[in-house]
Specification:
This protein is mainly alpha-helical. It has one domain. 73% of the residues lie in helices and 0% in strands. The chain has three helices and no strands. It is elongated and about 80 Å long. The two termini are 45 Å apart. The mean pLDDT is 91.
Length: 110
């Protein structure tokens, strides 16, 4: 949201939901090769962990939670990094505009 701004959030959310849910409809093994990203998708890993707990299928809950924890860590790091970057760029823009205003005031006074 910090990087895209609120104006582009609906487009991002629709794309995010489609890419996450599309890998849970059918098994990834029978889908085209482009859907291999699904093994790292958050919703796929939540789906697999729920299936393991509810239906007592092959136990890969540790792997699923590991992938989800990596998503949380990456999200925290990128969010903090982007916020620092936006803050610095806004600060430099504010400083530049203040300097320009001071120069204009000096020209008018002279």
């Amino acid at each position: 949201m910090t990087l895209l701004t609120i104006r582009f959030m609906p487009y991002f959310m629709i794309t995010w939901i489609i890419t996450n849910v599309s890998v849970c409809i059918y098994p990834i093994d029978v889908m085209p090769h482009i859907f291999r990203y699904g093994y790292g998708a958050p919703f796929y890993n939540v789906n697999r962990a729920m299936r393991t707990v509810i239906f007592n299928t092959k136990n890969q809950v540790g792997l699923n939670f590991g992938v989800l924890l990596v998503w949380v860590a990456v999200s925290c790091v990128t969010l903090a990094t982007i916020q620092v970057w936006v803050k610095r760029s806004r600060k430099s823009t504010a400083v530049e505009s203040t300097v320009e205003e001071l120069r204009d005031d000096e020209k008018e006074a002279a």
